[in-house]
Amino acid sequence: MAGEKPPPSARQLDLLERAYQYALERGIAELSLRPLASAIGSSPRVLLYLFGSKDGLVRALLDRARSDELALLERLNALNGHRPVGLEVAAEQIWSWLADSSHRPLLTLWVEAYGRSLVEPGGPWGDFALSTVDDWLAVLAAAQPPQHRATEAGHQQRTLVLAVLRGALLDLLATGDEQRATAAVQAQLEMLRAASAAGASS
C-alpha cells in the first residue's frame, strides 16, 4: 500500500538491538552517534541512513524499550490465564518484576525516557510517558472484576496502585533499598484489600 514503510532489514534490526543494549548500559539522554556507532560496529553514516536521523534512532530505541514493557504485561496476562485475578494480585506480580535487580537497566532507561517525554514533548520522546501510563492502567484494569473496572471507584483504585508502584520504583532505583520499598508497596496493598473486603461485605 502506498505510504507504508518497508519492514526493517536484518541489518537494521541487528544494529537496533545492539544500540538498545548500549542504551540500557549508558542511557539515551546524551546519546552521541559517533561513540554509539563505534561501540556497536557501525558508523554514524550507516545509522543515519537506516534510521533517517538521530531522532529517528531515538524513537526506534524507545519503541524497542516499550516492546519489552508490553511483553511483560502480556506475560502477566498469560500467567493469570487472561482473566481477572484482582488488583492486589496483579500489583504484587508487577512489583515482583519491578523489584528484580536484573531489570534495573531497563527500568532506569524507562524512567529516563519518561522524564524526557515530559520536558520535551515535541522531541523524539513524544508521548512515551502517556503511552506508558495507558499500558499499565490497561493491565491493571484487566485484573479487576468486569463489574468493578468501569466504575469511578475502580478507576481510582487502579490509578492509586499505579502511582504507588511508580513511586516505589523511583525510590528503589534511587536508593537500592528493596526491603523498604517492598514493605511500603505491601502495606498499601493490604489497605486496598481491607477496603475491598469492607466494600464487599457492606
From TrEMBL:
DNA-binding region: 32-51
Pfam families reported in the protein's UniProt record: TetR_N
Domain HTH tetR-type as annotated: residue spans: 9-69
Record flagged with keyword DNA-binding: yes
Record keywords, A-Z: DNA-binding
Keyword Phosphoprotein recorded: no
Alphabetical list of SUPFAM superfamilies matching this protein: Homeodomain-like
PROSITE patterns named in the record: HTH_TETR_2 (PS50977)
Identification of the protein by name: TetR/AcrR family transcriptional regulator
Origin species: Saccharopolyspora griseoalba
